[in-house]
Amino acid sequence: MGKKIFSDYEFWFVVGSQFLYGTETLDKVAEHAQVIARGLDGSRHVPARVVYKATVKTPDEITTVVKEANHTDSCAGLIVWMHTFSPSKMWINGLSLLQKPYAHLHTQFNRNIPDEDIDMDFMNLNQSAHGDREHGFIAARMHLKRKIIVGYWADDDVMTSLGTWMRSAIGAVESRKLKVVRFGDNMRNVAVTEGDKVGVQIQLGWQVNTWPVAELVHEMGKVTEKEIDALLSEYTELYDMATDDSAAVRYQAREEMAIRRFLDREGALAFSNTFEDLSGMEQLPGLATQHLMAQGYGYGGEGDWKVSAMTALLKLMTRGLKGGTAFMEDYTYDLEPGHEFSLGAHMLEVCPSLAASRPRIEVHPLGIGGKGDPARLVFEGMPGKGIVASLVDMGGRLRLIVQDIEAVKPIYRMPNLPVARIMWKPEPDFKTGAHAWILAGGSHHTVLSLSATPEMLEDWAEIMDMEFVHITKETTIKGLKQQLFLSDLAWKLK
């Protein structure tokens, strides 16, 4: 078994049974459970270890496993399966204490019914078809959030769905530890980048705090020329140097070193800043921010701490997957009838993980913020199916809005646009998609990912107890209006 992408985490496979069937049957249950756990653990679709933990047969055994899971940092969640009939009243005390993500795998050990060999001994052993239904009832009765995965355990679709949920579960666990550093405050008078930081920390665990830009400038002063030289060597390995302004590039390297030190010192994985507060800085971080995002840090422009945190989490959840994930902003449209596209960019800060080819380091005037000409990475985005996601504060609750998109090769060269640029078609079509996004309250800032899936984000939102809105090729404005109305009522009653 090779090293897993998320080597710090494991998921416990817990199998339900009871003492009714005798020791021979229970031995078989444990044997089968270990075979399945090894199969799941060895799957290329499964990003963390799956460990057979126990066959639980009594309320006390169930409660003990749950308590242990809650207090084991490396345990990111439980995967439960009822091999036999496990009376679900036994599970009440344990499940009422569960604080980790929870998946219910509805499967069975054998793929097929053994025609000539099936007898009552086989039936007593292999009772998942109704054992899992008994377990499903108690979770529904207790209103527990859980992922339900149905199918034969060795099939790719089952392992893929399980692996996707595991990424969401790890995202939920990491969310509870996430720290966001805000250099300065939000852009003045902007509404959607605001939010209830205390409420978010209670619900999602995010610790969002502000530091004065002067402290970052002080950290920049401690960066040595030797350190800058080393980072410039890294830049030239990864990017084409398309500028003679070495001073601007070196300044971005100084900014990057200082920001990274600041984040690492605070144990933070995400940051935000704004061009309205650059006191003591010569350039808005551009290349610096882009290269930090390429290393997995999250970023949000204009003080948008929510999109900064979401960028960091999606980068973490999609680790090892093809594609890329980046902070994004809808900037302008191409409205040729029947071929409408959105052009996404930002002033500077789009992650090169989305680049279709080797990015170029260029230096150009920014035209905003009143500072020097910043170095930045310029590139075209890669094509592919993906999503854009926006987390918004609706007052009393959070709403995660996800829209399916198809990124395309930009249809224009745009030689005078000196920023990274991505073009995409929103689902279900431009007019309906933009209408739906605005109706739901989606921000102009998003996370664009060609790696994350809607299922991954929906699972994460459910674990975090959050409203989820998904704009797909099936979305209609009439249907979305009804969904939002009913959702508003449900969340207010909740």
From TrEMBL:
Mn(2+) binds at E302, E329, H346, H445. GO terms for biological process: L-arabinose catabolic process to D-xylulose 5-phosphate. Binds 1 Mn(2+) ion per subunit. InterPro entries: Ara_Isoase_C (IPR024664), AraA_central (IPR055390), AraA_N (IPR055389), AraA_N_sf (IPR038583), Fuc/Ara_isomerase_C (IPR004216), Fucose_isomerase_N/cen_sf (IPR009015), Lara_isomerase (IPR003762). The keyword Isomerase applies. Pfam families: AraA_central, AraA_N, Arabinose_Iso_C. Its EC number is 5.3.1.4. HAMAP family: Arabinose_Isome. This is L-arabinose isomerase. It comes from Parasphaerochaeta coccoides (strain ATCC BAA-1237 / DSM 17374 / SPN1).
